[in-house]
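COURSE: Structural Biology Practicum
ASSIGNMENT: Worksheet 4, Part C
STUDENT ID: 0417
INSTRUCTIONS: Below are two proteins. For each, the amino acid sequence is given first, followed by its structure token string. Answer the questions at the end about the second protein only.

PROTEIN I
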Amino acid sequence: MTPVSFWFMVLGMALATYLPRTLPLLMGSEMHLPLWLERWLKLVPYAALGALIFPGILTVSPERPWIGILGGIAAAIAAWKWRNFLIALIAAFLTVYVLS
């Protein structure tokens, strides 16, 4: 790779990450979204988090995937009951540790 093509690639990646983050800020005060779209967009972080966590739950123990599933269930129950991330994390960890 030549130095010129390297810097074009870096510039392209910088624009690709900068523009989608900047344009909504510049146009955000003028644009009003429908209520249904605002509610839907508020759910996106939860969906993304679930998409990131769920494959890890299934691969905790590849030969026994039920261990990860039970750890995920324990974390969900602890998070729902106590609404504390640390308690949910400890519940999942202990469940997987005891069952492994």
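PROTEIN II
(use this one for the questions)
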Amino acid sequence: MSLLFSRQCEYALQAVLYLAKMPPGSMTSIKEMAAKLDIPYHYLAKILQSLTYKGLLRSLKGRAGGFALRLPVEQITLLQVIDAVDGSAIKNTCVMGFGECSEENPCALHDEWVRLRTGLFDVLIDKNVIQLAKEMKKPVYEVLT
């Protein structure tokens, strides 16, 4: 599990990047994604349903069904995926876990965390999923290009 995101969010990011590499208009089954990304099927199904409900994916039932990105890949940022799964708590959460942490009442790492968080958000907002999918070097993503 990563330092910043939940396991569910990590899987959501992996799935969205996988879908970003698919030909436009094509649908991908949960079974295929679960196998290729090594994510438990039922867990991935819940994540994809949630992303569909939040408007990032579209789904189609039936033999030719599956999941696809709802928006053009250039319009989906990592921050949108993270917000859809983990919410916006990371924007205001204390890195040390204190409930009250602010300029007026800072923890020992407050100033450093604010600088790091600002840089992180710049990346999450500036990079869209197709940019990242193209830069992905993991073998499972290379097969899709």
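ANSWER KEY EXCERPT:
Q1: The beta strands are 57-60, 66-69.
Q2: The mean pLDDT is 87.
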